[in-house]
């Protein structure tokens, strides 16, 4: 489980897997477009058979984009071809050294945002039914978790903030994404720990404090239990 500081569009053209987005797990397959707004917690599985494209829009996209996560199953062949064509044209301009290539790439990015807006509108009928109570609660938990996972709060604290019992919160998460509330919390904290150890020079003690652990020793034990490596050994390997 992770989040990004910029919007992301995933366009799958081969294979299948599962993605957890805003607290709900669904299968994805060929011609699925998944839009993930900045700051949205998500995680997905990929195998050697999965192929697709990830389009990062930047921290200041400059084009209109959906405000909420979108999982679109694009069944119309013309729409599938149009998306592929836009992405190919965008890639050509990004790889080009011709005059105004950057401006041309930005124009193709604008076309992609239009395509996405039209697909969201076309799929409105498929999503007419409101999400059930478990998915709504899981989505609220995922949003709160993304904001507070560095605080050292436990599942009981999150449940209290959401006005439910820990048991009820865990039951809702299992129904929505087949994972417990504690598993989502641990996975999110673990990813951030791995990122900080691999991408920064922060001392292990500082990483521990940044993620809300009560002591560096407790952080080291928890990290080793989940990864099989001490934080120092993981950093050395990374």
Beta-strand share of residues: 5-15%
Report on the biggest sheet.
Answer: 4 strands, antiparallel
CATH-scheme architecture of the largest domain? Sandwich
Give, in order, the helices and strands: EEEEEEEHHHHHHHHH
Features:
single chain; 9 helices; three-stranded antiparallel β-sheet; alpha+beta; Jelly Rolls; 238 residues; Arc Repressor Mutant, subunit A
Describe how the helices and strands are arranged:
Elements: E1 8-14, E2 17-21, E3 24-28, E4 32-36, E5 42-44, E6 51-56, E7 70-73, H1 77-95, H2 101-122, H3 133-148, H4 155-162, H5 166-177, H6 181-199, H7 204-210, H8 216-227, H9 231-237
Helix pairs in contact: 1-2, 3-5, 3-6
Describe this structure in words.
The protein has 238 residues and is α+β, with helices and mostly antiparallel strands. The protein has helices spanning 77-95, 101-122, 133-148, 155-162, 166-177, 181-199, 204-210, 216-227, 231-237, and strands spanning 8-14, 17-21, 24-28, 32-36, 42-44, 51-56, 70-73. β2 (17-21) and β3 form a beta hairpin.
Short description:
The chain has nine helices and seven strands; from the N terminus they run βββββββααααααααα. The chain is an alpha+beta fold.
């Amino acid at each position: 489980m992770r989040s990004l500081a910029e919007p992301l569009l995933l366009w799958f053209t081969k294979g299948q897997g599962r993605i957890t987005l805003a607290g709900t797990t669904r299968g994805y397959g060929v011609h699925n477009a998944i839009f993930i707004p900045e700051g949205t917690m998500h995680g997905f599985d990929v195998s050697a058979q999965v192929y697709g494209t990830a389009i990062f829009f930047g921290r200041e996209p400059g084009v209109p984009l959906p405000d909420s996560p979108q999982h679109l199953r694009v069944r119309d062949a013309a729409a599938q071809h149009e998306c592929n064509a836009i992405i190919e044209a965008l890639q050509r301009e990004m790889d080009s050294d011709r005059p105004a290539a950057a401006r041309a790439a930005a124009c193709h990015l604008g076309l992609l945002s239009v395509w996405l807006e039209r697909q969201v509108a076309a799929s409105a009928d498929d999503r007419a039914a409101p999400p059930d109570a478990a998915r709504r609660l899981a989505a609220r938990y995922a949003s709160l978790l993304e904001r507070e996972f560095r605080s050292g709060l436990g599942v009981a604290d999150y449940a209290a903030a959401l006005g439910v019992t820990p048991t009820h919160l865990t039951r809702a998460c299992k129904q929505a994404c087949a994972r417990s509330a504690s598993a989502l919390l641990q996975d999110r904290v673990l990813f951030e720990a791995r990122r900080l150890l691999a991408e920064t020079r922060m001392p292990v003690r500082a990483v521990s404090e940044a993620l809300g652990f009560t002591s560096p020793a407790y952080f080291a034990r928890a990290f080793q239990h989940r990864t099989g490596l001490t934080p120092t050994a993981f950093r050395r390997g990374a």
